[in-house]
Design brief:
The chain is an alpha/beta fold. It has helices at about 55-80, 90-95, 95-105, 125-145, 160-170, 200-210, 215-230, 250-265, 275-285; strands at about 25-35, 85-90, 110, 150, 175, 185, 190-195, 235-240, 270.
Amino acid sequence: MDNKLYDYSPIVDRAPLHWPGGKKVAFYLGLNLEHYQVDKPSTSIFGGTAGLHPDPLNYGWRDYGLRVGIWRMIESLDRHGIRPSALVNADVCRNYPQVIRAGLDRDWVWIAHGRDNSTFQTGMSREEEVDYLEDVVRTIDSHTGSRPKGWLGPALTETDNTPQILSELGLSYVLDWCADDQPFYLKIEGMMSVPYSIEVNDVTLFANRNLNGPDFVRIVKDQYEQLSADSNESGRVMSLALHPFIINQPFRQKYLDQALEFIADQPDVWVTTSDEIAMHFDSTSQ
C-alpha cells in the first residue's frame, strides 16, 4: 500500500521557512539514552555472539554508554554550550537516576524513546500499545517533571497506530520518519515529523560502516555546509544522532569535541532542541 501518513511535498515548492534571528540551519543534538535487556539481541559490534544468552561482549559494549561514556558526553556538551534533546527510554529513568539528575541539572529536553531499546511495538494490538505508550510517557514525566512532546521509536520503529496514539497522549511530533530536511505535518491532527538523521548517526557511521574519527568530523562539516548552502531561501534542520557507548569511546572523544566546536562556531546556526524546532515550525506555518 502507499504511505497514508503524509503527502508528497517537494522541498522546492514550499513556502520559505525562517528560523529565529535570521539563522539558516537549526541544529539539534539527539542524545540517545538507552537501556537494553540482558537476554535479548540488539545493536552489536560483533554479530558472532549477538544471539547468545548471556552475551557479555555486546551487552557490555552497550552498557559502557551510561556507565562511562555519558560523562564524557556531558563534559563536551557543557564545554560547547549545547543543550541536547535527550531521547530517553523509560527504563533509563528507572535504572540510571544519576544520568537523569545530570540532565535535570542542565535543563535537557526529554523525548520519549520507548520503554527500552530491546522492546518494539511491532505485533502489539492497539490496546496493548496504548497501555505501553501511556506507561512510557507517564514514567518519563514522573522522573523528569516534563511530559515529553516528541517521540523516537526504539530503532525508529512504529506501528500503524503509533502516531495517532501519541497525539491522543498529547505529544506533537515524531522523529522516526527520516524523509526530509524540514519539519512537515502528518495526516494526524496536531502531529508533525521533525528531521532526524539515520546517516549522520554514530551507529551508522561507526558500527555499520567502520569509519574513523576524522571521517566523522569531515561528515559533520560536509553535512552542515551543504545544508547551509541549501538554506539561502528557506531554512533547514541538521540533527546529529549520538550514542554514548559509541561516540564517547576514548579514541573518538576528541573528534566529537572537534565536531561540536565547529558547529558552535558557525554564525548562521541556531543551536537548539527538537522541541523548539517543532514549536517554531508550528507557530510560523499555520
